[in-house]
Amino acid sequence: MAGADRVFNLLDAEVETDEGYVELVNATEDAAGNLQEVEETTGMWAWKHPHEDGTVTYHKQEGPVTFSDVTFGYNDDKMVLHDINLFAEPGQKIAFVGSTGAGKTTITNLINRFYDIQEGKIHYDGINIRKIKKADLRRSLGRLYCKIRTSLQERLWIISVTDV
Q: Where do transmembrane segments lie in this chain (predicted)?
């Protein structure tokens, strides 16, 4: 029932504008190691940082995620996560295991910025996720939700079918 309450609260919430300005773009690298944005799909991703003076810098998307002293609550009256610290290396697989309501889904929703935190910082590739456009942030991350009653083979089959 608590999950349904959260869904209805989301449906009633005002639409939030995306104030992120860092974008994920296709890139190539020249002989000197400089990244350049390109239209075609290259298999290389870079973060595009526009600056106030009109210049743009790029850095390669590599993927570390860091939580630093993160505190979060669905409302300001009751915090459900307190002072969470986490570092995930690029390509590292992390499993959040716990009972219902322990915060597993909440943590992944915070990484994807479905909610904003009350305190602390979440960085992706060294960038505060509040500065990254939400669509680009979500496009760059992968998640696998696991139902205990399905086999690993079934879950991997579902992923491969949906990726086609």
A: none
